[in-house]
Amino acid sequence: MKYEALEKINQEMTASADAMQAADQKFLQELQKNAESIRKTAIARPVILLAGPSGSGKTTTAFLLERFLDRWGVETHTISMDNFFSTMTPQQREMAAAGKLDLESPARVDVPYLNQQLQSIIACEPTWMPRYHFPTTTRIDQDWQLTRKPGELLLLEGIHALNPDVITIPEEMTVRIYVSVRTRVTNGETVLHPSRLRLMRRMLRDKKFRQRSIAETLSMFEHVQAGEHKYIAPYKKRASFSVDTFLPYELGIYKTLLDGELEAEMRHPMLRELQQMWDAVEPLTLEHVPADSLVREFAGDSAFQY
Hints:
By secondary structure, this protein is α/β, with parallel strands linked by helices. It has one domain (3-299): Rossmann fold (3-Layer(aba) Sandwich). Helix content is 41%, strand content 16%. The chain has ten helices and ten strands. A hairpin with a 4-residue loop joins strand 4 (127-133) and strand 5 (138-146). The chain is globular, with a radius of gyration of 20 Å.
């Protein structure tokens, strides 16, 4: 586990307008090494499985990997497991609204349908791809068509992508990647657990894209974490690569964008460590954050279409 001193982060990120770009370049260089390894085994292992907990930056990491590979002439198709969720029944919708449905469970995925479509793509057959409409919790099964050509890669991202009970493709055909925040921020006395950075990412995303308050996101996160421990963490040891998506400037960005709403919830037990260092965090703005930065997945205005 890596540690970053908050004082050092403040000094470096406020010293120059180029500091944020430099931090992103460092992240991209590490990601490029993984992309190079994937390219070397592209023929034998045409399927990339990318998993990680909520707020880990799976989607942007997937798009960045695809961009590296595409630029090298290795055409890559990225699809999200979220689009293979089963349509909810009226009863399930009522349970979800009451907080009584396990939204992190792999049972939400239509596993037979997903693997059927994956086998079709691998066989280079024209394959209809679904799209899940989250506002109505319904799946559209024939939204667009994908035809993979021989030598091209398929990148599947989702929280259950490393679970062999969900993805039944032979392991020898896959490259497996686990994505999460691994770095801990410390002020010398208090250590901020990586899950709290992911929580802030989720707060920002929920606020901007799902019209949820900070308090609502906080109330859900305990269940989200329980799902991570039960359904995601047990399979991270299957990963060929592990990616740390921490960016040193993100705490400062979240301080600016979450503003007073987060401060109003600081008495929440999950925010105890954050409260103890929050006053010392230097606020930063999105002005110098690159358009392809992972932070933009949560803050908006990303170069990628999610």
